[in-house]
Amino acid sequence: MASEFDLIARYFTRPAPAGLLGVGDDCALFPVPVGEQVATSTDLLLEGRHFFPDVDPRALGHKALAVNLSDLAAMGARPIGCVLGLALPRLDEPWLAAFAAGFHALADAHGCPLIGGDTTRSAHDLAISVTVFGAVPPGQALRRAGAKAGDDIWVSGELGAADVAYRLLDGQYPANPALLAATRNALEWPEPQVALGLALRGVANAAIDLSDGLLQDLGHILAASRLGATLEYARLPVAAAVAALDDAPRRRAVLGGGDVYQLCFTAPAAQRQAVLAAASAAGAQVTRVGQTQADPGLRVLDDQGQPLADLPAGFDHFPAA
Ligand code: ADP
Ligand code: MG
To answer: Which residues bind substrate per the record (predicted)?
Structure first.
């Protein structure tokens, strides 16, 4: 049977780019770009809690890194490298090979090589921990606290599909193979908006990545910036398959659905052209969905300008000031 060291050599050891010391020593080494700060973030994914036990391992490898790259994107940081902690309940080589392939493919696409980690046997469930490192010039990171009253609020990509796929797979919605086929990629293969985050440096005032739902995550920007906001429901970019659903599931998916890994950011109205230019340079779609204001609280208006009642759960948790 393969030892821990064989597994690491086979699946997690890649030639490190010049100037980096990758897998194989007690620490990895990477140069810190002169004059820049290191941005770092870590995410822990647990079987049964963050992913279904039978998920495609290639997709899981992709997503484990994607959710971390998304945090770098939200700060406007450029990826440098990452480390991977794995607690494995069993030694399943085909599973590991597929997981590693999904992980390395995304790492290569973003120039974020795997340079170290830890591998251990777990008694029960699978646990995956990824830490990313990135670089950003001092003062240029996109912070949650940077929004100003009167800023436009923007979101990238489309909303709602991941939530619908999750609820279908979880059995909360009746089986619907066509709807699952139309939404599943959004849940399992999120594309972190790294290029957009970089392009928004010096343009956006604040940013966050959408992991827990638009209202919740925008609420973090508002709380950190001590602002309120108004969103226009009709402006929100809704995934086509979700737009066709009934009101309640659509609203829950669009306003409350997590696992989006798109960016929500604010920028002064005077920067509208600059935002659109940044998005186009990054190959991203962005939509202006509302405005921040000094008044506390988060309102969502329908197309008659009336506040929506029955906002998805989580809304009550928003600090009003
Ligand atoms: P140590 O006992 O010094 O912590 P290990 O035997 O755990 O070292 O790991 C050996 C090498 O393999 C180290 O360079 C470590 O970073 C790397 N490594 C271990 N597990 C992983 C993994 N899952 N992904 C990437 N690198 C790993
Ligand atoms: Mg170790």
So the answer is: 50, 259, 315
